[in-house]
Amino acid sequence: NQIKTFTIWQDTQFVYRVNDTIGCWDKDTVRINMHRHPVVDAGADIRLCSDGILYREVDVTYDESDLDSVVWYEADGPVLSPNVGLNLNDSGTFVVLVKDTIGCMARDTVEVVVSPELIAYANGNVICYGDTVELTANETGSKSFNVRYYWYEGNNLITTGRIARVNPTVTTTYTIKVAETIDGVECRDSFENVVVKVNPLPV
User: Fold this and answer.
1) Residues with Cβ < 8 Å from 57, sequence gap 6 or more?
2) Contact at 8 Å (CB) between 48 and 112?
3) pTM of the full predicted structure?
């Protein structure tokens, strides 16, 4: 018996012939059909807000055989979903592995980064009727210098910026919301209510 190793890139037919010392011979033919691996695309890497969730479904193309399985798992971690789709809401590298009924496999990865949660805070104040007060907002959790501040009275946006100058005539509740954009994704993660109490003028 002889073992021969070949590398092939397309459908190929081999003919094997043997001869003995007196001139007798025989041959046999074997045909090898190439089967293309399935192709899987998990999509582009993504960034999510801290309270965000994204359903990601893979795109799979495969050859003449049928698709046998699709499995999502976290890199170096357990299986997360035996389906073509997965809800993504944590940072990490996620891998999808597909296999067809012949046993050919393919995989792709998607990197998920979750932006840190922003927490807004500001102090209220007590003023006299007719006075103007400055309200100053701050935040924790920012990972960039691209934080924006939005001040609301009820549902109405009254100003933007870290400092709001207001002169209510009655006790009023303002809401400060903070937002941050990282990699083109804006997250408005937090809000804080601020009460400005207005005391009447003495008579």
Assistant:
1) 84, 85
2) yes
3) 0.63
Q: Which residues, in sequence order, are CB contacts of 166 under 8 Å at separation 6+? A: 132, 133, 135, 153, 158, 172, 174, 196
Would you give the distance in Å from CA 46 to the centre of its chain? 4
How far is the C-alpha of 110 from the C-alpha of 92, rounded, in Å?
8
SS3 track for 32-86:
ECCCCCCEEECCCCEEECCCCCEEEECEEECCCCCEEEEEEEECCCCEEECCCEE
Q: Rounded mean pLDDT of 115-139?
A: 87
How many other β-carbons are positioned within 10 Å of the β-carbon of residue 172? 16
Bridge partners of residue 26, in order along the sequence:
18
Residue (of 176, 177, 173) closest to 196 by Cα position:
173
Pick from 114-118, 151-155, 176-180: least confident: 114-118
Residue 190 tokens, joined: 């937090």
What pLDDT score does 118 carry?
Answer: 79
Cα–Cα dist 129/145, whole Å: 37
